[in-house]
Amino acid sequence: MNGKIRSLFFICLGLLFGMAVMYVYRNFIEDKKDHAGSVKKETVSYGSTSPNGASNNGNSSAQVSIDQLTEEKTVISYVKQNHQLPDYYITKNEARKQGWNPSQGNLCDVIPGKAIGGDKFGNREGRLPDGERYFEADVNYHCGGRNADRIIYTQNGEVYLTKNHYKSFEKQ
Q1: Which of the following is catalytic: 35, 72, 125, 165?
Q2: Is 165 in the active site?
């Protein structure tokens, strides 16, 4: 190898390494920092997630079904008001650590009373406005496999609903 080719090789290798480090930081390390802070901001009981803010006294997580907890209107209202998800949402990574296998649709068996949400949404297709950091969450979830209904939200409380797995969005 002559000197020019060797230099070019090491430059490319350095760029690839740098991109790999940025990917790991952005998708794993930074994600934990963001969600660790937001989870500690407010503790929410299952009975306080109704859209009108009324509390369902006496309801425990076992008495409220995941179907009711993830109704789109309930979750959208909560996110717009609190700028974060209710605490019964769990990221995909956290769910996998507790035994969730997406292909088996076993979330309700492994972690009852929880739904998937809080992961970053990349907006790769560019269908949402640029310049924001987006997060996603399942809505209208029924035990078993995940459906196509999601909300995409920002930390400013902006919420978008998709019922066709990110093909189109409706601002809420």
Answers
A1: 165
A2: yes
What's the rounded Cα separation, in Å, for the pair 49 and 137? 15
Alpha carbons 147 and 2: distance in angstroms, whole number: 56
- For residues 57 and 47, is the Cβ–Cβ distance under 8 A? yes
Q: Which residue has the higher pLDDT, 34 or 27?
A: 27
Average pLDDT, the chain: 79
As a whole number of angstroms, the distance between CA 36 and CA 10 comes to: 38
CB 171 within 8 A of CB 159: yes
Reference 153, options 133, 168, 170, 130; nearest CA is 133
Are 168 and 162 within 8 A, CB to CB? Answer: yes
Is the separation of the CB atoms in 157 and 170 below 8 Å? no
Of 39, 122, 55, the residue nearest 88 (C-alpha): 39
Find the catalytic residue in 94, 136, 158, 170: 136
Find out whether 162 and 170 touch, Cβ atoms under 8 Å. Answer: yes
- 50-72 tens-digit pLDDT: 444 444 444 444 457 888 888 88
pLDDT at 29 over 70: no
Contact 149, 164 (CB under 8 A): no
| pTM greater than 0.70 (yes/no) | no
